[in-house]
């Protein structure tokens, strides 16, 4: 197998995936295009119709009222609220630390030529909060909290009408300014286009199902999006020090997300590969979510045996997994050799599950090898870095002559005149 940077022998698969992770998206594309077109022309009427059709919901009002927020908060179990606030505190602290690294700039690169940039928070952001089979209480935290830390003017949250009430409480605690009970592609269309009820946003963030993902793809342009995230992924890199029980447990923890979750082990140690294969089967026999985890493991799970550390690194970088765990003898040193991943978990004590829930790094991450060119959601997602310049007379003398000459060689007379005018006036 070869990529643009590294050549290596294809691994030996102790367990190969039965299906490709790339699915036929044509039917989804057509349905989503119809949803967007109707929301554009009919607004709330279309949103209400799709809520009835897809969610079995017939809500009179989409927006969650202050009284409904208070009720959801009051119904939240005390321990659940404490755990939610623990996660919010960690995500906020890390986002604030990240924000502290984003300095503004002004520099005089030549005499009289001053260049700079500013970091400006977005005015209004839409956070899609998936409902899922279970109430994913960490989902609103990961999208809403960094937006508030970044200084976004207004944060809109959309979640499916049938989402667990605890999700409303989670959106409230995370700092959402407005919360709407709208799910699926119609939620993305409403936030992107604006309706009589839902305000138009500048950027849409957050994971969702295939319809949500496709809707984000189709509305991109007039509004920004964070990324096109597919089903969850986890890969573990392990040498002969790997613990089969721990690795199998972590693989299945992600596999229970979705029947299309991609999970894998890349190892240099055949006995470990075979032990993990057996251990996954042993644990599936008692896992309460096996109806989801087993199809994911059967269809997309893999155990790849490679010759040496270099091959392990090369194959891992080609996969560019969303979550990448390092279980080697010296995991910190090994981690510095890896380049492509969504988020890295160094050492066997650092489980993906901790980040999924509450440790502080964001769990909204690139999938389907997008880790080769982008990172995950972070406070910078909600900020635009914009440049500026100002020149004094000496600066004009520096840049006007080459600018005018370049414009003339390109045949752009208007450009040449604009470059020359200020210089001529200074010389006059």
How would you sum up this structure in a few lines?
Helices cover 46% and strands 17% of the residues.
At CATH's second level, what is the architecture of the largest domain? 3-Layer(aba) Sandwich
Q: What is the CA-atom radius of gyration, in angstroms?
A: 25 Å
CATH class of the largest domain: Alpha Beta
User: Strand pairing plus helix content: what structural class?
Assistant: alpha/beta
The CATH homologous superfamily of the largest domain corresponds to: Nitrogenase molybdenum iron protein domain
Defining traits:
Histidinol dehydrogenase homolog, 6-stranded mixed β-sheet, Histidinol_DH_CS, 46% helix, 428 residues, NAD binding, alpha/beta, 5-stranded parallel β-sheet, Rossmann fold, metal-binding, 3 domains, metal ion binding, 16 helices
How would you summarize the topology of this molecule?
Layout: E1 12-15, H1 26-42, H2 44-55, H3 66-75, H4 78-99, E2 105-110, E3 113-121, E4 124-128, H5 138-150, E5 154-159, H6 165-174, E6 178-181, H7 184-193, E7 203-205, H8 210-219, E8 224-225, E9 233-238, H9 244-255, E10 262-267, H10 270-284, H11 290-300, E11 302-305, H12 309-319, E12 323-327, H13 331-335, E13 343-346, H14 352-357, E14 383-391, H15 393-409, H16 413-427
Parallel strand pairs: 4-5, 4-7, 5-6, 7-8, 9-10, 9-12, 10-11, 12-13
Antiparallel strand pairs: 1-11, 2-3, 3-14
Helix pairs in contact: 1-2, 1-7, 1-8, 2-7, 3-6, 4-5, 5-6, 7-8, 9-10, 9-11, 15-16
């Amino acid at each position: 197998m070869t990529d643009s940077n590294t050549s290596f022998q294809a691994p030996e698969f102790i367990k190969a995936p039965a299906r490709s992770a790339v699915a036929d998206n044509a039917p989804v594309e057509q349905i989503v295009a119809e949803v967007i077109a109707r929301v554009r022309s009919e607004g709330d009427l279309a949103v209400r119709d799709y809520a009835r059709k897809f969610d079995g919901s017939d809500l009179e009002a989409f927006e969650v009222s202050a009284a409904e927020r208070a009720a959801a908060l009051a119904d939240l179990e005390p321990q659940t609220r404490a755990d939610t606030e623990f996660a919010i505190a960690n995500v906020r602290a890390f986002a604030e630390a990240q924000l502290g690294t984003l300095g503004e700039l002004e520099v005089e690169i030549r005499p009289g030529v001053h260049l700079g940039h500013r970091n400006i928070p977005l005015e209004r952001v839409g956070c899609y909060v998936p409902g899922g089979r279970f109430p994913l209480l960490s989902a609103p935290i990961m999208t809403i909290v960094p937006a508030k830390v970044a200084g976004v003017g207004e944060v809109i949250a959309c979640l499916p009408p049938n989402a667990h009430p605890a999700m409303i409480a989670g959106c409230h605690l995370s700092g959402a300014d407005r919360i709407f009970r709208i799910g699926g592609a119609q939620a993305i269309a409403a936030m992107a286009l604006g309706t009589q009820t839902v305000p138009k946003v500048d950027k849409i963030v957050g994971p969702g199902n295939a319809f949500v993902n496709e809707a984000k793809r189709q509305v991109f342009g007039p509004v920004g999006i964070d990324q096109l995230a597919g089903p969850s992924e986890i890969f573990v890199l392990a040498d002969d020090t790997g613990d089969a029980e721990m690795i199998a447990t972590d693989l299945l923890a992600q596999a229970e997300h979705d029947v299309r979750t991609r999970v894998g082990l890349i190892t240099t140690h055949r006995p470990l590969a075979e032990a993990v294969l057996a251990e996954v089967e042993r644990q599936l026999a008692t896992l309460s979510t096996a109806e989801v985890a087993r199809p994911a493991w059967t269809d997309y799970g893999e155990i790849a045996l490679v010759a040496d550390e270099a091959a392990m690194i090369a194959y891992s970088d080609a996969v560019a997994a969303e979550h990448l765990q390092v279980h080697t003898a010296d995991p910190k040193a090994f981690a510095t050799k890896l380049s492509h991943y969504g988020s890295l978990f160094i050492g066997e004590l650092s489980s993906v599950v901790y980040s999924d829930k509450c440790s502080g790094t964001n769990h909204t991450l690139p999938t389907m090898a997008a880790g080769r060119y982008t990172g995950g959601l972070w406070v910078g997602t909600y900020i635009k870095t914009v440049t500026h310049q100002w020149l004094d007379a000496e600066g004009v003398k520096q840049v006007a002559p080459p600018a005018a000459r370049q414009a003339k060689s390109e045949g752009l007379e208007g450009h040449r005149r604009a470059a020359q005018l200020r210089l001529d006036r200074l010389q006059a």
